[in-house]
Amino acid sequence: MNDKIAVYPGTFDPITNGHHDLIKRGSALFDELIVGIADSKRKGPLFTLDERIELSAEILKEFDNVRVVGFDVLLADFATKMHAKVILRGLRAVSDFEYEFQLASMNRHLIPNIETMFLTPAEQFSFISSSLIKEIAMLDGDVSEFAHPIVQQALKDKFKKV
């Protein structure tokens, strides 16, 4: 198996235009890009794992070489199971670097045959985070610049229930 497979892991709670930007660019670099959606119960996500998978899969269906897969195991084990050669990570700001560097170093120790690659988002997405989008949406703010219309509707629906 010589395919260049990468895993782009995260909670994607919810998927943002910044995530989409990285996925678009990452999909051009690899034969297959697997968007690995972590269960992350400890983070207390707004959307269930199934909801996050469904939202992401719908938004990313335009990419022939992108697959959305949920996981609830160690990233090292998930990446190995997916036959990945690379773990793709996004760096929005210098403040992300220290944490991401630690993760990359730990993953290099756990899975030395899988590299970590960092991409920075396009400038207009560098400040977007799922947390900020959720907070804006919860307070009935406009998130149309930051999230796909499907995500905007899902946020509206979710906060109506709260």
TrEMBL record:
ATP binds at T11, F12, H19, G90, L91, R92, E100, F125, S126, F127, I128, S129, S130, S131. Keywords: ATP-binding, Coenzyme A biosynthesis, Cytoplasm, Magnesium, Nucleotide-binding, Nucleotidyltransferase, Transferase. Its EC number is 2.7.7.3. One of its GO terms (cellular component) is cytoplasm. Residues 7-135 form the Cytidyltransferase-like domain. One of its GO terms (molecular function) is pantetheine-phosphate adenylyltransferase activity. GO terms for biological process: coenzyme A biosynthetic process. The keyword Plastid does not apply. It comes from the Bacteria. Its cofactor is Mg(2+). Pathway: Cofactor biosynthesis; coenzyme A biosynthesis; CoA from (R)-pantothenate: step 4/5. It catalyses: (R)-4'-phosphopantetheine + ATP + H(+) = 3'-dephospho-CoA + diphosphate. The keyword Membrane does not apply. Signal peptide: none annotated. Pfam families: CTP_transf_like. The record marks H19 as: Transition state stabilizer. Belongs to the bacterial CoaD family. Reversibly transfers an adenylyl group from ATP to 4'-phosphopantetheine, yielding dephospho-CoA (dPCoA) and pyrophosphate. Homohexamer. This is Phosphopantetheine adenylyltransferase. The gene is coaD.
